[in-house]
Structures
1.
Amino acid sequence: MSRTLCIDTSSGTTVALLDGDRLFTRHHGDRRAHAETLAPMIAELCPTPPDLVVVSTGPAPFTGLRVGIATARVYAAASGIPVAGVSVLEAYARSYFDSHPQATKVTVITDARRREVYWGVYTPAGRNDVRALAGPGVAAPSEVQMRGAYCGAVSLIDAQATDSELAMDTFARIAHSRAERGADQPTTPLYLREPDIHRRS
């Protein structure tokens, strides 16, 4: 039975273990405590190595994303198991299509802070994957064209929008679907903008 560990540090810290059809999840909402909370959560939820590690590649702020991806890479290397990267926007889109099976397109928006949003437009690709039509990008909410349905953590968008639940098992489903097709799944982070701290020239 396949066991997949999923890690998302795009907003707070969430760790999930998909063990066959069973999903076990731990979450810590502090956006500044990724380094302190991630390793203990993994140890609690997954005391023995899984078959695959899937990590969110963002987009997200620099520090949280770096902690999640670095931890996933080191854990996978030390355990001798593969690691795959999946965008959190892709996971939100797949979650949306699961609950709206007739939908053919969705714009996903998440909070990028500084009164901006990360965004991407997706369409279904089979039952377990999605395909990007536009993005990902970062922009002010007014600059993101809304066409049809949209979902995600959309607190900065107009009053018609509501937050959507991110189903953590979608990270695993997307990764397994792409692995079956032999698709490349890099863990390259999607920062989309420069970090807040810069080295003086």
2.
Amino acid sequence: MYGPEYHNIIRDICENNKIDYRLFDNRCIMLSRNGQKQFIWSRRFPYNTASCSRIIDSKSVCALILDSAGLSVVAHNKLYRSDTEGYANQKESSQKVCEKILNAFGGVVIKPNDSCEGKNVYACFSIKEIEYALFEIFHSKEIIAVSPYIDSDNEYRVFYLQGECLLAYRKIRPYVIGDGSSSLKILISKSNLQKEDTIKHINFNYVPARGERIEIGWKFNLSCGSTLEIVDDNELKKTLFSLTKQAAEVLNAQFVTVDFLENSKDKNLSILEINAGVAMDQFILKHPKGRAIAYSVYEKAVLGLFK
């Protein structure tokens, strides 16, 4: 969920740099200075072209383009609801496609093709779970994306602005610390984690020892309970920055965030998705210096509009 602090930060940046700030309908920000005018729509700055943004918004198309350029990317298969025009050109039923991925990889992730913040995203490890996920998502969406489930211990996000990588952080999946007497069911109930976001087949009756750490969530989204730490390993940053720049250049993207999954088996990094809306609302809440860091990132973006 988006909070008010983002608007406060943009307003402060404008005030400190003599830029006129006007907010329309709580989503559109108009900035002007010395006769020059720029617009920000929600968290989307006017750096990326319309076609670039449309490509990024489609998980399936974005993955195809990155793969065609030789980059390691998590495949996203585009599927249509049966009552739509696109379904007529679909060679197999959505369930059949999902079942094939399940058999090949042991798990399949099903989500809207334009998903964000981990909403309506399901990890499925059985046909029954696939049926449920398809029913739930197709209830409100016409197009979905399905991808193999990749067992991963780490997910990273990198902030990119016109050739420069500004920030990289690691997402840490939700976990609980045992107290020696409470079951996982009780500990999870105190975490506010949604049931569909918990690790599949978790033993809710298990009582962790005092101080024992148990991962309870499978999603890395900060909005789904994950926490974060800024990447300070120079070699890792160098690798992440290099891959991010390559991906951005393939798409002609100018201001985006890029998410990477690290395969737990071979430690290889694959691009999970790219985001045209550069949101830091959860980062602000979950990092001690979140507001100051966000201010620095957004200030560079705002000032770059008036060069």
3.
Amino acid sequence: MAVSLLDEAAPAQRETLKREIHTNIAELDALVEEVLLASRLDSGGDVLLMQPVPLRALLAEECARVGARLEEAPAGAPAAEVVPGDERLLRRAVRNLLENARRYAGADIVVQVRAAAAQAGGGVEVRVCDRGPGVPEAWRERIFEPFFRLPGHAEHEGGVGLGLSLVRQIAQRHGGRVRCEPREGGGSCFSLQLPA
């Protein structure tokens, strides 16, 4: 008869082991889901369900989930920016940016939504800004490659390097783009631009 580690553990250890097992299973589920989504987007097999998406409402929900601060709309701006898109995929892109910021920067995350500059093609720009260690200029494009992680971060921060790659794929499927910039005063800002 096989005896498991859980059977031999003291009650307090047993609860700790159960939580760790549940966390590991959740991480594996998320990884499998991200790999499948990346594969579908890469092959063009994931059909976009285009509809008007109230971007500010989506951002407010996702910010509340991770404790990020959504800046108020500037005076004169529409109360709820609406973009054409697949809400499920746009939510995933925003969630990945927010979770990435939380992983590397902790609690000081600010989200802004504004009209994109005309030279960037117009539309709407979502900025997720953090006070983390920042991304060196040499790596600002590479971080969007599948499975790429900054040297030294993989051992401490977790993740498998698919989140930002998915953000780029989702942006491109919507006719938009994403980029990483340094944040004044330290940290990074990830800019997701979408057509209006």
